[in-house]
Design brief:
Elements (H helix, E strand, L loop, with lengths): L1 H127 L3 H127 L4 E6 L2 E7 L6 H10 L3 H10 L3 H10 L2 H5 L8 H13 L5 H13 L9 H19 L6 H20 L2
Antiparallel strand pairs: 1-2
Helix pairs in contact: 1-2, 3-4, 3-5, 4-5, 4-7, 7-8, 7-9, 8-10, 9-10
Length: 421
C-alpha cells in the first residue's frame, strides 16, 4: 500500500510538472503574441490619430490665419476711407465755423485802436492848419497811418488771438468729433475680429475633442477585452495549479493517516525546494498558532505553504510581524520558504491587495538569488510574479498608492532578475 502510494505521488508530481510546462509555455507564447499585436495596433491607431489631428490642426490654423488677414484688410480699408473722405470734410467744416466765430473777435479787438489813431491824426492836422492843403494832408496822413496801423493790428491779432483761438477750436473739434468717432469704429471692428476668432477656436477645439474621443473609444474597448481575456487565462491557470497542489496534499494526508509519516517535498510550480514531514491536524489554524507561540516560524510557514491554501498563508502572515520577522539576523526562514511565500502571495494578490503588496515587498527584499538552494528556481518564479504584478498594474481599478507600491515592487524584482543572469 505504501509503495503504491509513493508511485501514485511520483506519477502525480510528474503529471503536474508536465501539465505546468504544457500550460505555461502556450500561455506565455500567447501572452507575448497578444502583447505584440496590441502594441502594433496601439501604435498604428495612435499614429493614425496623431496624423489626422495634425492635419486638422494645420487646416484650422490656415483658415484662422486667412480669416484674420481678411479682417485686418477690412479694418485697414475702413480706416483709409475715413482718413481720405470723412476727415477732410470734418476739418473743413470745423475751420469755417471757427473762422466765422474769430472774425467778430478780431473786429472788436481792432476797433479801439483804429478809433484812437483816427482821432489823434485829426487833432494833429487841425493843429497845423485848416484849409485845402491841410485837408489833403490830413487825408493822406490819416490814410497812411490807418493802413499801417490796421495792417499791424491785424497781423498782431492773428499772431496772438487768432492763432490761439484757431488752435483751441481745432483741438476741441478733434476731441469732440474726430477722436470719439475713430475710437468707436476701431473698437467695433476689433470686437468683431475677436468674436470671430474666439468662435473659430471654440469650434476647432470641439471638433478636435470629438475626433479624439471617437478614435480612442474603439482602442479602449479592444484593450479592455484583451485585458479581460488575459485576466481570465491567468485566473484559470492559478486555479488549476492550486487544485493540483490540493490533490497532492490530500494524497499525502491519506498516506500519513494510514501509517508511517512519508517525507514529502514542498513542490512549487518549478520544482521541489524543501523536504519536511507532512502532518495535517484537524484545525490547521490552532496548530499554526501553537507553532508561532513556540517561535517555530520555519515549521509554521512550511505547514501553511504545504496546504496550497492561500487563505491559510494570508492568515498566518497577518498573525505575525512579517516585516520584523524578515528583518531578523539570522533569518528564521529558509530561502525556499521565503521564495514559496512570495509565489503564493502573488497568486492571491486580488484579495486585500494593499496588504499583499506590502508583504510581498518585504519578502522579496529578504530573498537571496545567489543561494544555491533556490538558484535554479529564482528566475522562473520571479518572472511569474512579475507578470502577475504587471497585469494587476494595468487594471483600471488600481488606485494611486497601490500603483506606487506595485511600481516599487516591480523595480525590486527587476533588480533581482538582473543579478541572477
Amino acid at each position: 500500500m505504501q509503495e503504491s502510494l509513493n508511485q501514485l505521488l511520483t506519477t502525480q508530481k510528474e503529471m503536474q510538472k508536465q501539465m505546468t510546462m504544457m500550460v505555461a509555455v502556450p500561455v506565455t507564447k500567447e501572452g507575448r503574441r497578444l502583447e505584440a499585436a496590441l502594441g502594433r495596433s496601439m501604435e498604428k491607431a495612435v499614429k493614425a490619430n496623431t496624423d489626422t489631428l495634425w492635419a486638422r490642426i494645420q487646416e484650422e490654423n490656415a483658415k484662422n490665419e486667412k480669416l484674420l488677414r481678411d479682417r485686418i484688410q477690412h479694418v485697414t480699408g475702413l480706416i483709409s476711407n475715413f482718413m481720405n473722405k470723412d476727415l477732410p470734410a470734418i476739418l473743413e467744416k470745423t475751420v469755417k465755423k471757427e473762422i466765422a466765430s474769430v472774425g467778430p473777435a478780431v473786429v472788436r479787438a481792432m476797433t479801439p485802436a483804429i478809433e484812437k489813431i483816427i482821432s489823434s491824426a485829426i487833432v494833429e492836422s487841425f493843429q497845423r492848419g485848416v484849409g485845402d492843403k491841410a485837408v489833403n494832408q490830413l487825408d493822406k496822413s490819416v490814410n497812411a497811418k490807418l493802413e499801417a496801423t490796421v495792417a499791424r493790428q491785424i497781423q498782431a491779432q492773428f499772431q496772438t488771438t487768432g492763432k490761439q483761438v484757431l488752435q483751441d477750436a481745432l483741438k476741441s473739434s478733434f476731441e469732440t468729433s474726430v477722436v470719439p468717432a475713430f475710437e468707436k469704429s476701431c473698437k467695433a471692428m476689433f470686437e468683431q475680429v475677436d468674436s470671430t476668432f474666439q468662435k473659430g477656436m471654440v469650434e476647432h477645439s470641439t471638433s478636435v475633442q470629438q475626433r479624439l474621443e471617437a478614435g480612442h473609444t474603439s482602442l479602449a474597448m479592444t484593450l479592455r477585452d484583451s485585458i479581460n481575456s488575459a485576466s481570465s487565462v491567468t485566473q484559470t491557470l492559478s486555479r488549476e495549479v492550486l487544485e493540483g497542489q490540493r490533490k497532492l496534499m490530500a494524497y499525502a494526508t491519506a498516506g500519513a493517516n494510514s501509517g508511517t509519516l512519508n517525507p514529502l517535498p514542498i513542490q512549487l510550480n518549478n520544482g521541489p525546494l524543501l523536504r519536511e514531514k507532512v502532518e495535517v491536524p484537524l484545525d490547521p489554524k490552532q496548530e499554526l498558532a501553537r507553532l508561532i507561540a513556540e517561535r517555530k516560524f520555519e515549521e509554521a510557514f512550511t505547514g501553511a505553504l504545504q496546504r496550497s491554501d492561500v487563505s491559510i498563508v494570508s492568515w498566518l502572515c497577518s498573525q505575525v510581524d512579517l516585516h520584523g520577522l524578515l528583518s531578523m539576523v539570522p533569518l528564521p526562514l529558509t530561502q525556499g520558504v521565503v521564495l514559496s511565500l512570495l509565489q503564493q502571495l502573488a497568486c492571491d494578490i486580488n484579495n486585500d491587495t494593499s496588504r499583499k503588496i506590502a508583504w510581498m515587498t518585504d519578502v522579496a527584499a529578504a530573498i537571496n538569488p545567489s543561494d544555491p538552494m533556490i538558484a535554479m528556481h529564482v528566475r522562473p518564479i520571479f518572472e511569474q510574479v512579475y507578470q502577475i504584478l504587471n497585469h494587476k498594474r494595468s487594471l483600471p481599478t488600481m488606485t494611486g498608492p497601490d500603483m506606487s507600491s506595485i511600481r516599487l515592487l516591480l523595480h525590486v524584482i527587476n533588480s533581482m532578475l538582473m543579478t541572477c543572469k
